[in-house]
């Protein structure tokens, strides 16, 4: 079992997301994350799909995607150099002055921005790798138990320009 | 010139060469029916149920090689298509199904007879789409026919809202297609074919395993040449049966759960398994880890997703069967196989499939009579024991074809598919072989066959049971016949006390039932009656004839490989 990434180009039409999601569920393949958005060409959407699977299942996934009429191109991002980021918002409530100072310090060290705040609430925005976002959530959870609200955007990825090996 | 969507729909059918349309009307399709009214050159067939309608289109498509075309209304008309679409999908049958839909401005409102049919069929068809703009209508229909018949064929559904049927627009129907996400594979990797032929050339105990793909791509002639020039014996799946004449000296038989001993043994013993056009479905492999254990495997399939899915393959070749076999013929090798074929034929002679344990009028005798009396025919089965016996005993060559629901195993398929086959092949004898259970799943089509004056011969093998399931209960569930007796009435009590002693009469009376539809009904209870019944049926060219054969109630299909067991664990008799 291994973590895999697929970049998928599909027709930008009603029902295509369901089609792709349905393909995964009908074959009992589990999706870890999926993001979708329009590309520079309005008629094409681009998806970044993360899944954990063995080699054989992954081959099947790619073949099944490829044979769908709505799928234009399937690119395997697992082994090639890419830039991959995920947006994360964390809202921390009931903050006193000290809490706020701590949050600002954490933001500084982890490269997050304080996007918004009022008297007792702070909103952090982080655009990091999935792993780093996991770390930030874990840290905030332990510092401010039961006071955080998290929303994650899922990963988007694009092939690297300068790097040729996957490091 | 301008025309409305419904008129463009009719124009599209004509441009695609559609001569037969299976269609059932309703509110959201009425304008398309109106546009069809009085149109020359398209035979609009009215079945009596939409499920049967799709099977009819399917039987028409399988027997003619053309695309089967359906038209139904929205809501219940559309949902009734589901089983037929799935049936066609599993057996790679090209269909285009048009469904009426509520007007675009009502979609999502839970309008009267609105269902999201595209959402419902998404996982059981090759492609499905709702037309949302009148200007896309021509292109979408063009694409639908193209997708249905190219590559690995399959059913396509086009959902057309009522306002789009009525909207005026261009009368243009495109002549070319370009779909960026759909490029069916053409040609073949010659290097892979050479590697495969080299592997075959070195084999001592090779076999060809042939699936339905060879029949779909009409590569029977090429396959025969390949077998003869390599000298390699041929084994088929149920869907592949008929790819080479069953009386050909190199033909061994079917493999699988109900395959014959020699075929299953040859698969277990072979050193190179050269398979073409099969997806290694569990019904043919038995226990996967024991399947063709000694063999290197070469797999030709048009669908790359079928390769190395169930069975790990040594040499994959993605190609249409015909193209692949032609390339193989250009790179022919002939392995030194000594007495291999002789050895297999000895197994075949030692363990023939037969029903000698049963007396009187066995299904074997009925089917062998069909072999004798109907040399140029299309035989269509339903599902169950009737189907399995047919795949065991029916002889096939280029003049006799078999249609059967192999992948989905849909009861109720046989009779309507036979109607479709007859419509597409008026000059051939069309014979349906059905069980007494499955026959009732689409019995209403008797009205269709009578209305169309179609001389289809329907053989109901009446054992008074859902026989296939009963056999499993007998063999693997201690004879507990749970819900499989079709003679059951309340007065029998919950559990049958004394099978076959004091059973109530069978219902329905098939002969009277046929007569009530104004069809001919014949009942045969004895061996001697088989031929006369077939002759009588044949002489009735005015409409359908139903022959009810009263067969032994508890006859079994043998041999059989129990669920989850290896092919070598087959049970020969019981
Ligand atoms: C639509 C459908 N429902 C249920 C089944 C399961 N099934 C397979 S064979 C069979 C029995 C068929 O009985 P009958 O039509 O009398 O044929 P026989 O096996 O007796 O020849 C059943 C219930 C099926 N294949 N299709
Ligand atoms: Mg029966």
UniProtKB/TrEMBL annotation, chain A:
It catalyses: 2 pyruvate + H(+) = (2S)-2-acetolactate + CO2. One of its GO terms (molecular function) is acetolactate synthase regulator activity. It comes from the Bacteria. Pathway: Amino-acid biosynthesis; L-valine biosynthesis; L-valine from pyruvate: step 1/4; Amino-acid biosynthesis; L-isoleucine biosynthesis; L-isoleucine from 2-oxobutanoate: step 1/4. Residues 5-79 form the ACT domain. Catalyzes the conversion of 2 pyruvate molecules into acetolactate in the first common step of the biosynthetic pathway of the branched-amino acids such as leucine, isoleucine, and valine. This is Acetolactate synthase small subunit. It comes from Anaerobium acetethylicum.
UniProtKB/TrEMBL annotation, chain B:
Residues 3-119 form the Thiamine pyrophosphate enzyme N-terminal TPP-binding domain. GO terms for cellular component: acetolactate synthase complex. CDD domains: TPP_AHAS, TPP_PYR_POX_like. Its EC number is 2.2.1.6. Coiled coil: none annotated. The keyword Amino-acid biosynthesis applies. It is an enzyme of class 2 (transferase). It comes from the Bacteria. Pathway: Amino-acid biosynthesis; L-valine biosynthesis; L-valine from pyruvate: step 1/4; Amino-acid biosynthesis; L-isoleucine biosynthesis; L-isoleucine from 2-oxobutanoate: step 1/4. Signal peptide: none annotated. Keywords: Amino-acid biosynthesis, Branched-chain amino acid biosynthesis, Magnesium, Metal-binding, Thiamine pyrophosphate, Transferase. It catalyses: 2 pyruvate + H(+) = (2S)-2-acetolactate + CO2. Residues 193-327 form the Thiamine pyrophosphate enzyme central domain. Binds 1 Mg(2+) ion per subunit. InterPro entries: Acetolactate_synth_lsu, AHAS_TPP, DHS-like_NAD/FAD-binding_dom, THDP-binding, Thiamin_PyroP_enz_cen_dom, Thiamin_PyroP_enz_TPP-bd_dom, TPP-bd_CS, TPP_enz. NCBIfam families: acolac_lg. Belongs to the TPP enzyme family. This is Acetolactate synthase. It comes from Anaerobium acetethylicum.
């Amino acid at each position: 079992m291994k973590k895999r990434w697929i970049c998928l180009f599909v027709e930008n039409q009603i029902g295509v997301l369901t089609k792709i999601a349905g393909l995964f569920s009908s074959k009992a393949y589990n999706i870890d994350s999926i993001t979708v958005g329009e590309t520079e060409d309005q008629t094409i959407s681009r998806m970044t799909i993360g899944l954990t699977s063995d080699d054989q299942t992954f081959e099947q996934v790619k073949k099944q995607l490829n044979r769908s009429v709505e799928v234009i191109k399937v690119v395997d991002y697992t082994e090639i150099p890419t830039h991959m980021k995920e947006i994360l918002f964390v809202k921390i409530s009931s903050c006193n002055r000290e809490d706020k100072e701590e949050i600002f310090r954490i933001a500084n060290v982890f490269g997050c921005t304080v996007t918004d705040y009022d008297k007792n609430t702070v909103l952090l925005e982080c655009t990091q790798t999935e792993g780093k976002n996991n770390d930030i959530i874990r840290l905030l959870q332990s510092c401010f138990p039961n006071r955080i609200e998290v929303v994650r955007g899922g990963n988007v990825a694009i092939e690297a320009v300068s790097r040729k090996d996957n490091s | 010139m301008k025309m409305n969507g419904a008129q463009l729909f009719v124009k599209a059918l004509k441009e695609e060469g559609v001569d037969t349309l299976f269609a059932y009307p309703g509110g959201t399709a009425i304008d398309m029916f109106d546009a069809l009214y009085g149109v020359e050159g398209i035979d609009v067939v009215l079945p009596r149920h939409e499920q049967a309608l799709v099977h009819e289109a399917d039987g028409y498509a399988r027997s003619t090689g053309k695309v089967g075309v359906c038209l139904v209304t929205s809501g219940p008309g559309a949902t009734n298509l589901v089983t037929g679409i799935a049936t066609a999908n599993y057996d790679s049958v090209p269909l285009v199904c048009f469904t009426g839909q509520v007007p675009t401005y009502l979609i999502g409102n839970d309008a009267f007879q609105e269902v999201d049919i595209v959402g419902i069929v998404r996982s059981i068809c090759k492609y499905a789409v709702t037309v949302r703009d009148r200007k896309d209508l021509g292109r979408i229909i063009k694409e639908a026919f193209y997708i249905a018949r190219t590559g690995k064929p399959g059913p396509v559904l086009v959902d057309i809202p009522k306002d789009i049927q009525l909207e005026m627009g261009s009368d243009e129907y495109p002549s070319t297609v370009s779909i960026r996400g759909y490029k069916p594979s053409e040609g073949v990797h010659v290097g892979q074919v050479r590697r495969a032929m080299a592997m075959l050339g070195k084999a001592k105990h090779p076999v060809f395993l042939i699936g339905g793909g060879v029949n779909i791509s009409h590569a029977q002639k090429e396959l025969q040449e390949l077998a003869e020039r390599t000298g390699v014996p041929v084994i088929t799946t149920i869907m592949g049966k008929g790819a080479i004449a069953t009386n050909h000296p190199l033909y061994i038989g079917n493999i699988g759960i109900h395959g014959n001993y020699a075929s299953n043994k040859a698969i277990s013993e072979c050193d190179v398994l050269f398979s073409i056009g099969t997806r290694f479905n569990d019904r043919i492999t038995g226990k996967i880890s024991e399947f063709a254990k000694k063999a290197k495997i070469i797999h030709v399939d048009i669908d790359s997703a079928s390769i190395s899915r169930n069975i790990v393959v040594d040499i994959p070749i993605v190609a249409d069967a015909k193209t692949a076999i032609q390339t193989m013929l250009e790179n022919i090798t002939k392995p030194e196989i000594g007495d291999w074929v002789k050895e297999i034929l000895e197994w075949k002679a030692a363990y023939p499939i037969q029903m000698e344990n049963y007396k009187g009028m066995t299904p074997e005798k009925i089917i062998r009579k069909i072999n004798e009396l109907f040399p140029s025919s299309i035989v269509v089965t339903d599902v169950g024991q009737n189907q399995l016996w047919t795949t065991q005993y029916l002889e096939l060559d280029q003049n006799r074809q078999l249609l059967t629901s192999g992948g989905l195993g849909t009861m109720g398929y046989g009779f309507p598919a036979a109607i479709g086959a007859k419509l597409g092949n008026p000059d051939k004898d069309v014979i349906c072989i059905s069980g007494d259970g499955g026959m009732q799943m689409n019995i209403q089509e008797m009205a269709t066959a009578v209305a169309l004056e179609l001389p289809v011969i329907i053989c109901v093998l009446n054992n008074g049971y859902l026989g296939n399931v009963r056999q499993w209960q007998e063999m693997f569930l201690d004879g507990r016949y749970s819900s499989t007796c079709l003679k059951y009435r309340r007065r029998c009590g919950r559990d049958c006390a004394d099978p076959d002693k004091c059973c109530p009469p069978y219902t329905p009376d098939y002969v009277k039932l046929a007569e009530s539809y104004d069809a001919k009904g014949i009942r045969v209870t004895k061996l001697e009656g088989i031929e006369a019944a077939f002759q009588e049926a044949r002489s009735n060219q005015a409409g359908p004839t139903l022959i009810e054969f009263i067969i032994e109630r508890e006859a079994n299909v043998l041999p059989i490989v129990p669920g989850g067991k290896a092919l070598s664990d087959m049970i020969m008799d019981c």
